[in-house]
Amino acid sequence: MKLLHIDSSILGARSVSRLLSSKIVEQERRLHPALDVVYRDLACDCALHFSAAHMAARAGETLQGAELCSDLELSQEYLDELFEADIIVIGAPMYNLTVPSQLKAWIDRIVIAGETFTYDETGAVRTLLPPGKKVIIASTRGYVYRADTSTAALEHHERFLKGVFSFLGLRDVTVVRAEGLALGARTRNAAICHAQVQIAAIRP
Known about the structure:
Blueprint: E1 2-7, H1 16-31, E2 36-41, H2 52-58, H3 66-84, E3 87-93, H4 101-110, E4 117-119, E5 125-127, E6 134-141, H5 158-167, E7 173-179, H6 185-200
Parallel strand pairs: 1-2, 1-3, 3-6, 6-7
Antiparallel strand pairs: 4-5
Binding site for FMN: 9, 15-17, 94-97
Catalytic activity: 2 a quinone + NADH + H(+) = 2 a 1,4-benzosemiquinone + NAD(+); N,N-dimethyl-1,4-phenylenediamine + anthranilate + 2 NAD(+) = 2-(4-dimethylaminophenyl)diazenylbenzoate + 2 NADH + 2 H(+)
Enzyme class: oxidoreductase
């Protein structure tokens, strides 16, 4: 069994999403001792932002420049890792009401018509990914955006990620959330403890 572990926080050792994603991976290792883990740190090893040159390359035009060639090779690695993974763990902090741009760049490389999804004659979307993948998102936010709050309409973070994975046919999605992290030490610690309880409850 293979697990793809992705971090996207720019905060390094101070990152709560990195802490939680690592705890999730530890829990999955306990559940699956022979687990093969592939790790991607998008803050250090991020694809370029999607551009007209990438679109041209996908259309079969001649590649221009070593940087673009290297970036397209990285894109293929992202795809290969996604197809091979049985479990996908993503550390996803909220930045400016949505996901980090590094994580968005990864998403732009895995949501590809003809590679991970296709349309049929009626316009319906059909996933091309193998079935049965499990996704676990370590979601961290400075403020509070739950459905029962006045700021819920500004939540373009978890909703976006769940929408992307649902579009690709990945509907076994668990969110481990720690929010209110910027509202003082007491609230921060309680949120992290609550998230760790959620992690301990993860089952195969």
